[in-house]
Amino acid sequence: MADNVDEANQLAELHLASELTKAKAILPPLTGRCFYCESPTVERFCDADCRDDYERLQRSVLMRKRG
Question: Helices marked H in the chain — which ranges?
Answer without folding.
Answer: 4-25, 48-66
